[in-house]
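Need a sequence for this fold. Nothing fancy.
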């Protein structure tokens, strides 16, 4: 997450796709199923949004 934050990437579908792409390049197993990938992307975005929120100081 820090890498994407440092690159000033917003929490968008495109960012989720990029996170998945980079994880796959690092040999992380991500199933081919569209449904699973969509769910995984959703979870990644949720975590990335939380990461951004924590770093920006706009806590709960």
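Here you go.
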């Amino acid at each position: 997450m820090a890498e994407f934050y440092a690159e000033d990437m917003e929490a968008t579908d495109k960012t989720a796709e990029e996170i998945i792409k980079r994880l796959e390049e690092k040999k992380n197993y991500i199933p081919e199923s569209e449904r699973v990938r969509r769910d995984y992307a959703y979870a990644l975005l949720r975590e990335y949004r939380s990461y951004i929120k924590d770093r920006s100081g706009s806590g709960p």
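For context: The CA atoms of residues 31 and 37 lie 7 Å apart.
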